[in-house]
Amino acid sequence: MSSEPTLSGRYFDGESGNAQPVEIVLYNDHFLIRSSKKEFRWEYRHTKVAAQPDTETRLSNRHFPDAVLVLPSTGASALKKAAPEIFDGRRERRRITALISGLVIGAGIVTAAVFIGVPAASGPLARATPKDFEMRIGSNLAAQISILYKPCGEADALEILQPVLNSMAEKGDVGFPIEFRFVKSRGPNAFALPGGQVMATSGLLDAIGDDQEAFFAVMAHELGHVRARDGMQAVYRNAGLGITLDIITGGSGAAQQLVLLGGQLNQLRHTRIQEAAADETAIEIMTAMNLDPSALSRAFEAISASAPDEAQSENNEKKYPSWLRSHPNTEKRIENARQHQKSGGKPPLTSEQWQTIVRTCHAAQKGLADKETTQSE
Amino acid sequence: MSKTNFETPPTASVGATMRDDLTVRNVSRIGPVLWIGFYTSMLNLFTLTLFRFWGRTHFRRRLWSDTSVGGEPLEYTGRGLELFVGFVIAIFTLMLPFVGIVFAIQFFIGPETVYLAAVPLLLYAFLFFILGVAIFLARRYHLSRTRLRGIRFAQTGSALGYGVAMFGYLVLSIITLGWYGPAARIKLSRKLWEKAYFGSEQFSFTDTAEATAEPVYKSFAFAWFGTIIVYAIWAGWFFISMGESLTETATAPDLELIGKLYLSFIPMVILIGIFVSWHEAVMIRRIVKSLKVAGADFSSNMKTVDIIELAITNTLLVIFTLGFGFMAAQMRVWKRIANRIALDGDVDFARIQQTTEAAPKQGEGLADGLDIISNF
């Protein structure tokens, strides 16, 4: 028995593209769609609004997957009176709310895993990594870096330096044999890769000049990274955090960039912590070598003073808050190193030996400087 | 036979079979789409961008339902969950293994290995092949979730075959410095459209007189030489004005340099856009005019000025909305293309039966993973 007036509309049955004029007869919990040939029963609870353009309402039903019933607005109003649940947006709003809540919780779990879990696990994982495995990774990375930073220096200079570095590594209980090389680069810098690979730039030698203690303080800092297995930790962190965020995020616009930026800031926080810890290890190794630990402060000063983009570096140091930097504040590091000042013993190398070291990348360094001058002109 | 006007408003009459009305029309308004883009961006922030699958679905539903043929709107029946599941599958079947291999090469294979250099090259070649596969699968999903008058579209054919073809054409395009590109684009379009269906009706891609009359290579030459000239001027200006800043030893990023670099992109992109737009308009017309389905011939009167206008206004729209206007920009492109299309012919919709092609269960995860996804 019909409870409402009969409505008219058009019906696509999902079998052919023909629009069939139909009559719709409303009942308590369903309606019948009658065409000239067939009759279809649509339960209200399985029917939903598929689209509602200005002049008509398009309905679909779960049990008739491709079928579409189109009602003019007057018919839709009548149906709404008989079956308000079809038009009630609460079900859809609940679904969306549950979806967003689920996604936020899921994203929270992933965020916690990659921002907290992965960095926390990177230390134990690095320590659990077999040393020969880490050394292999380190030598592969060193080979790749050599493509960008060409090695420089004579074999005799490295022969002079290597025993001192070995002694420092032994006293600092670094745990890896040190494989050292100089590389061509104007920027005063040094870095440690996994597995005992340590590199110093020709620019560092140029900046430090005659102060061999300052050079060994920088080396002690790098040995600190080797001992803490910071390189290996960075590999695990980057793999966990970088790749996860890179793979998960997508789409376009500022949202994706902000999520990736969050990952990068988190990486910076960890490198600052590692740099500060390496400073402490440097002080420990310098003390064990009977050298003045505050030489580290002189190294920082020399590096700051001779950086090719010195003014820029100073500006950046003042301009950017600490959380945007990869290293702790230089002034604080200098101050911290100075607090450990003590008269050191005899420098490990004679001045003649040290001059051999200083000269070893001189030609390469001069070549870079000349190139830069030519470019400026 | 009837020829529809490009700007005729849609008509819908209850009970009619619409045998003669084939007007293609999109009536999307920018406000609602901007809103979808805005809330998608905001929710992306709190969901590690995972909401994008649902945002994209909302956008498509809106865009499809605003687009009608003969007064009957298209329907998008895809679901966000399908996109999400497709994406998760792509992560585990392709992306993680790929990243794993890249890492393994980087870390485990010794630098002394002779094949080390060849492996990344092979991997990237594989990536370009996969790109074609991803495009095909995404399109298969799109069409399977698009309905008109209760009839689904479908894409048949081989995703791997399309991937191989696209890779081959890409190599040819590189060898010929891009000059094979237009031919490749037409061939790839043909490959897709000839295997596409509207229900039981197969599309055809025919080199009609109108289609082949389009000045494909004349417009390409204009775009090619124009782009070279603009790029040469930009590169000359860049190296002359900023040469001294470009030292290999800089240890801190030069923000002024980066700022100037980005600002210089704007006129360069606009100028290149102007040179390329004629060719783009020609290519759209060339492809659309080749299409036919169920007795209806497609045509397009897309104009160069349409492309220029869209390129400039959409760039500004995206910049000034910090990216959340991206969907609105895509909507404007879709709208212009749709409103420039006309269908000519008699279509007996009663004759068109539902497709028997099985629809894929998940969608376009690969394309999403490769960041080549289009919202439409």
TrEMBL record, chain A:
The record's section on CDD domains has:
M48C_Oma1_like
Q: Keywords in alphabetical order, please.
A: Hydrolase, Membrane, Metal-binding, Metalloprotease, Protease, Transmembrane, Transmembrane helix, Zinc
Q: Where are the transmembrane segments?
A: 96-118
Pfam entry (one): Peptidase_M48
Region span, Disordered: 305-355
Q: How is the cofactor bound?
A: Binds 1 zinc ion per subunit.
What are the Basic and acidic residues biased-composition ranges? 328-338
- What are the residue boundaries of the Peptidase M48 domain, all occurrences included? 161-339
Q: Which domain of life does the protein's organism represent? A: Bacteria
The family database entries (InterPro entries) matched by this protein are listed as: Mito/Outer_Membr_Metalloprot, Peptidase_M48
Cofactors = Zn(2+)
- UniProt similarity note: Belongs to the peptidase M48 family.
What name does this protein carry? M48 family metallopeptidase
From which source organism is this entry?
Hyphococcus lacteus
Automatic annotation (TrEMBL), chain B:
Transmembrane ranges, per UniProt, are 33-54, 83-109, 115-138, 159-180, 221-240, 261-279, 307-329
Asked whether the keyword Transmembrane is assigned, the reply is yes
- Has UniProt tagged this entry with the keyword Transmembrane? yes
InterPro entries listed in its UniProt record: DUF898 (IPR010295)
Recite the UniProt keywords alphabetically.
Answer: Membrane, Transmembrane, Transmembrane helix
Q: Give the Pfam families listed for this entry.
A: DUF898
Protein name, as recorded: DUF898 family protein
Q: Which organism's genome codes for this protein?
A: Hyphococcus lacteus
Its organism's taxonomic lineage begins at: Bacteria, Pseudomonadati, Pseudomonadota, Alphaproteobacteria, Parvularculales
